[in-house]
Amino acid sequence: MKWEKKDIPQELVREIVRKYKCDPISASILARKGIINGGEIKYFLEDALRFLHNPFGIPNMEDAVERILAAKDEGEKVLVFGDRDVDGMTSTALLTNCLRKMGIDTQWRIPVGDEPYGLSIAVVEEFAAGGGALIITVDCGISDFDEVKRAAELNIDVIITDHHNPQDETPSALAIVNPKLSESRYPFRDLAGCGVAYKLVSALRFALKSSLFKQSICLLNIRPANDSYVIEMVKLRNLFIIDRLSETVVPGVVHVTQTRLPAFLESQQIFVWDARVQKAAITKIFGEDIEVQMWDAAPEIAKELPSTDGKSLLRLREESSLARYSDMEFSEIDVFASLFVSFIQKKEKLFTEDDRQDLQLACLGTIADIMPLKDENRIIVKAGLESMQKNPRPGLDALLFKLDFAGRRLTSNDLGWTLCPTINAAGRMGSPERAVCMLLLEDDKYKLAAELIDMNKKRKEKGEETWARIKPIAEKSLSNFDHKFAVVGDENIFRGVTGIMANRMADYFKTPALAASFADGVVTGSLRSSIRDNPNFILTPILEECAELFIDKGGHDYAAGFSMYVENWESFLERLKKRIVPSIEPAEQTEEVIFIDAELPPSYLNRNVMRIIDLFEPYGGPYGSQNEPLTFLTRGVIVRDVVFVGKNGANHVKLAVDTGKNKWTALYWNAADRVQNSFNRHDRIDIVFKITRNFYRGVETPQIEIRDLRRAEK
């Protein structure tokens, strides 16, 4: 096993420390991970909700909000339709809860039993028969062409909120809210479905609270520049910047009508910072005949943000955290815009306990769907974890209690390995509605939590039984697909475990994989590809290549699914073999490499190191989400004790290591054979490791998990 610690320029580390006010070890880790621009660093060092992106940057958000408000005013019936996985179930609960609190007559529905993924014509017709007027999809809908068309025929509007990759053409819905649409200006495309649902709810709350909903306003700032003036303006709608203009003008040279200012400012409310100074500048530039109606925002902003009182925009730019993280020029007008947004957010109390409760669900969906833990996903997960720990929403509190997490510090690892699989088991075992009922408190929450735990136990048993049977079949299938693809499909595979089996096959065989279930003449398949082992191979082209063979399909780059009639199965396999597999570049078979984030001297191994661990939380889930747990190297620790442990034979090693001032427990999994003759007590060893927390009887203890070790050089 090879250890690799990337060399990084020390001047780069010093610059990160200086500019972003972090410690040298964290700065070196950021640099070694390639996180060196401010826009990325911000989401590791900050966790305030004000750093979340404006929801109105997602295409068609305003249209969706306006239609939902109309449904409220008209007393219409609304249906929220979601998916059967954790992302879909939490999205369904999140939006349903919000609409009901708004007083909207809201039903919810997700596929149960053997129903296919996505909206169905039967559901549309059933809702229409009950007098329904509006369907809102969550975590699905982007490929439901026929269903949306049928809804229109029945005078039902459809709003699609989704995060799956859209096709070149999209359904003719009233509004499609998806950050991945080609026309999207939203700065982050990798929200989970629940993240998109949270954004819709945030936009609805803004519309209900703020007089600025659907309003355009203009912020104006004039600043001197040598013998000229720079006139800067930004136009905001729903607090989202939709346009900006900068023009340099020499006083007395041009008339205002010869500039772009009148067209930009026409019919706009104009806000400035220090109206006296701005009016004087306009007079100097264009003469006394020009008068601009403007409102001075500075005094009002100072009431909510006292630290701004009496300061110029130039001074405030020096203090601005957003300016510090900006990789482009952050001018005074940008400072003004950020202050104005923060002012409205605080004045109108846009972030409340309701938001934090919703973020618990968005956090679960983000982790469960293995979304990249970068950009605002980090804030969504951090805030959701913190809220879940302090004040878990009803339903989740019962599940946390039953899983023995009540009162404990929660991590993304806890969600990825325990909480999310337990909720997901409801969908895999054909009863996802039980999880939604728990989240919405539509039955006894402790009873429902117990049901989910029991379903997860049965799902594990079914999974182990299925894996034992299909593993040799999958291994044999490799020869049919040039050893680049593993395929298993038959009537003995339970539909609820196809995704788990495909994941397991991809991890075990280091190839893309397909697991399919046959039932009632329909094949339901799950496709998986590993971002770690096959980063250049994505699955969505398979769906497009074989589109006419499917009943429905959907998914992400590395996780996708479909259903088809059984008579198309052989044609699909033939096409997979002849058209898809030849394009797969096999992963190189090389020595396993452990990438080291930082080398820590033994004296650094104390409780303070947990601050660094927590700074980089949240980490990737069971299959990684582009932020793996930190891996450290420490040389020359002393082995004080060695114990072999394990339930089914002493397969694991428990070491007591001495770092000088501190002693640590170090676990080395499945390493008994390797360790027995590697070193003796009191020897010095070099270790590569992660640091985790162990909880026992309510006490939290940091511990080392060794990934590899060597006898130290003398």
Helices and strands in order, then pairings?
Blueprint lengths: L1 E3 L5 H11 L3 H9 L5 H8 L15 H14 L2 E5 L4 H16 L3 E5 L11 H9 L2 E7 L6 H9 L3 E5 L13 E3 L15 H17 L6 E10 L2 E10 L2 E10 L11 H5 L3 E4 L2 H12 L8 E2 L1 H7 L8 H7 L1 H5 L6 H16 L5 H16 L7 H15 L5 H7 L9 H17 L3 H9 L4 H33 L8 E5 L7 H12 L3 E7 L2 E7 L11 H6 L6 E4 L3 E7 L3 H12 L12 E3 L2 E2 L9 H8 L15 E14 L6 E7 L4 E6 L3 H4 L8 E13 L2 E13 L3
Summarize the structure.
It is built from 25 helices and 23 strands. By secondary structure, it is an alpha/beta fold. It folds into four domains: 55-206, inorganic pyrophosphatase (n-terminal core); 216-347, 2-Layer Sandwich (Nucleotidyltransferase, domain 5); 482-583, Diaminopimelate Epimerase, Chain A, domain 1; 594-711, OB fold (Dihydrolipoamide Acetyltransferase, E2P) (Beta Barrel).
Number of helices: 25
CATH architecture of the largest domain: Alpha-Beta Complex
What structural class do you assign from the helix and strand content?
Answer: alpha/beta
Strand order of the largest sheet: 3-2-4-5-6
The CATH class of the largest domain is identified as Alpha Beta
End-to-end Cα distance = 21 Å
**Overall tally of domains:** 4
Rg (CA only): 28 Å
What is the CATH third-level topology name of the largest domain? inorganic pyrophosphatase (n-terminal core)
In the predicted model, the low-confidence regions spanning at least 5 consecutive residues are: none
Number of E-type strands: 23
Helix proportion? 25-40%
> How does the major sheet shape up?
5 strands, parallel
Average pLDDT? 92
Strand content: 15-25%
Shape: globular
